[in-house]
Amino acid sequence: MPKVSTTQQRIILASIMVILLGFFIVAGTLVGVYLTQKHTEKVLDVVIQGNKGEEEEQTAMVNERENVAAFHIKRKKSTATVVYNYNQGLIGLRITNSKKCFVMKMDKLNIPSLDEISRDLPHFYTKQVSGDKMSYNFREAEPADRTALGTTLNILCSDIPIYWALPRKIQGNRSSSAPLGSPWCFFGSLCLCF
Predict the structure, then answer these.
(1) Which of 182, 78, 99 is nearest to 135 (CA)?
(2) Structure-derived torsion over alpha carbons of residues 83, 87, 90, 92, reported in degrees to the nearest 10
(3) How many separate domains does the chain show?
(4) Which residues are in the BRICHOS domain (predicted)?
(5) Which CATH number fits the domain that encloses residue 128?
C-alpha cells in the first residue's frame, strides 16, 4: 500500500469533519422544524355517532401560534369548514359547494358552539324561526374587507366572496330590524336573511 502523506491525511480528516458537520446541521434543522410544527398545529380526526345513528366526521386543526381553531365537519349530505380566529375575534364559515363565505364577530355571549353548527348544518336552508334567538343578517351588499380577516379566513375563502354577518334579535317569526326576505335558520340559534 502506498504511504499517505500528512497533508493528504489532513485533507481527508477535514473533509470528513465538514461532512459530519453538514449532517448534524441538516438533522438539527429537520428536528427543529418537526418540533415547531408539532407544537404549533395539532390535528385531530374524530367520528361521532349521533342519537339517530348518523355518523359525523370532524377534523380539528388548532394553531396555537396564530390562536386559530379550524373544524371541517362532514355529514351525509352536508360539509362545512368553520374557523374560530381568536386573535381577530372572528368566526368564519364556508359550506362546501357554496358560492359565499360568511364571517361574524365573536360575541362573548352568543358564540355558536361547534355542536350547534354541526347539528343544524343539514338544515342550513330551512326557513324557520321560533322563540327569541340571536340571528345574523348576511347582506351581500357589504362584502368583508379581506385585509382585516387574517390569513386563515382568506385561505379558506380564497376563491369566493366573503360577507359579514350582522347580529339582530328575532322575536318569534318577526325581526326587530325589518329584513328583506324570510330568515333561514341554522346552527340552532343563527339565522340568515337575504
Answers:
(1) 182
(2) -20
(3) 1
(4) 74-165
(5) 3.30.390.150
Q: Please report whether residue 11 resides in a domain.
A: no
Cell numbers linked to 101: 363565505
pLDDT digits (tens, 9 = 90+) for 2-45: 777 889 899 999 999 999 999 999 998 888 877 765 555 566 66
Q: Identify the DSSP state of 110.
A: -
Strand pairing of 90-95 and 41-49?
A: unpaired
pTM over 0.70: no
Best CA proximity match to 163, nearest among 152, 149, 151: 149
Rounded Cα–Cα distance for residues 48 and 73 (Å): 11
Residues across the chain: 194
In tens, the pLDDT along 132-147 reads 554 444 445 478 888 8
How far apart CA 133 and CA 166 sit, in angstroms, is 14
State the Cα–Cα distance between residues 104 and 100, nearest whole angstrom: 13
**For residue 29, what is the enclosing H or E element?**
helix 6-40
